[in-house]
Specification:
The termini are far apart. The chain folds into 2 domains: 79 residues, Helicase, Ruva Protein, domain 3 (Orthogonal Bundle); 197 residues, Rossmann fold (3-Layer(aba) Sandwich). The longest helix has 17 residues. It contains 11 helices and 9 strands. The strands form 2 sheets. It has a 7-stranded mixed β-sheet with strand order 5-4-3-6-7-9-8, sandwiched between helices. Strands 1-2 form a two-stranded antiparallel ribbon. The protein is elongated. Helices cover 35% and strands 15% of the residues. The relative contact order is 0.11. Helix 2 crosses helix 3. The protein is an alpha/beta fold.
Length: 306
């Protein structure tokens, strides 16, 4: 492949550079999945960010010609994407979730959970958004789910929990950025073990490490830039889910729910808990392996009594 930073002199416009970058990505066989799923969308995101332009730029601007410095900036980013196989969000330090920008770097996973669709609907019909007072986001990473929940439930307190101090540092950046520091509390915790006293939640959202050992061994190079501790879930992907279920049973309010993402480990989840009433959620924009379970069901299964 030719040098991805060598820009043909014929390229002049925004559209030219989107097409050129997409061709470089396709030729190099880069892997997508950190916000886009194809070369053209990835190229558009890279070019527009490099030009400090909004991601929804009207196509009337696409014929606009670029300066030499702008061309060089795009070429440098294309080189990194191709040669280092960095996810684009680590190059731009920006990931998108719920239509909002979040600061990200290699201390956290790139935001991409289908749980965004549930946040948009306030987790109805399983919850009354007006009645939600406390939320826990387990494995908060960048804080995108915790912040999304704070915006969806303006009367709620949200605990953004993570075992990684590095991840919590990133979450704090985003909590401040989105102006929810009065209601979102980043807290170091191993699942729910670090929550003090008898604090209970109407909603627990969990995105624990759930990639099984076989899938970890086959990860595309882009995913290997993400923190391994945020991905690896043990032999069957459920190492963190087993203790979480017991902890959630003790921490949910009477009508609370646990929503947990286990991705491709969902068959292992069903096999491990055939007697647990799980609702597997469907998403209009794609995604799988997210289950919902009610407090009463968890408490029945794990014999929790007030």
């Amino acid at each position: 492949m030719s040098d991805p930073a060598t820009v043909p002199k014929e390229l002049e416009s925004i559209a030219d550079f989107i097409r050129w970058a997409a061709s470089r990505f396709a030729a190099a066989g880069v892997h997508f999945g950190h916000g886009t799923d194809n070369a053209i969308d990835e190229a558009a995101a890279l070019v527009l960010h490099a030009l400090h332009l909004p991601p929804d730029l009207h196509d009337a601007y696409f014929p606009c010609r670029l300066t030499a410095d702008e061309k060089a900036a795009i070429a440098a980013r294309v080189r990194r994407r191709v040669e280092e196989r960095l996810p684009l969000a680590y190059i731009t330090h920006e990931g998108w979730f719920l239509g909002l920008p979040f600061y990200v770097d290699e201390r956290v996973l790139v935001p991409r959970s289908p749980v965004a669709e549930l946040i948009e609907t306030g987790f109805e019909p399983w919850l009354d958004p007006e009645a939600v007072e406390r939320v826990a986001d387990i494995g908060t990473g960048s804080g995108c789910i915790a912040i999304g929940c704070a915006l969806a439930f303006p009367g709620a307190e949200v605990d953004a929990l993570d075992l990684s101090e590095d991840a919590l540092a990133v979450a704090r950046i985003n909590v401040d950025r989105h102006g929810v520091d009065d209601r979102v509390r980043p807290l170091r915790s191993d699942l729910l073990a670090g929550v003090s006293g008898d604090r209970r939640y109407d909603l627990i959202v969990a995105n624990p490490p759930y990639v099984d050992a076989e899938a970890m061994a086959d990860l595309p190079e882009e995913y290997r830039h993400e923190p391994r501790t945020g991905l690896a879930g043990g032999e069957d992907g459920l190492d963190f889910v087993h203790p979480l279920l017991r902890q959630a049973a003790e921490r949910l309010t009477e009508h609370g729910i646990l929503v947990c993402e286990v991705g491709h480990s969902w068959p292992a989840m069903e096999a491990a808990y055939p007697d647990l009433a799980l609702t597997w959620l469907e998403f209009e924009r794609g995604g799988e392996g997210v289950f919902l379970v009610e407090a009463a069901e968890l408490q029945r299964r794990f014999a929790v009594h007030d």
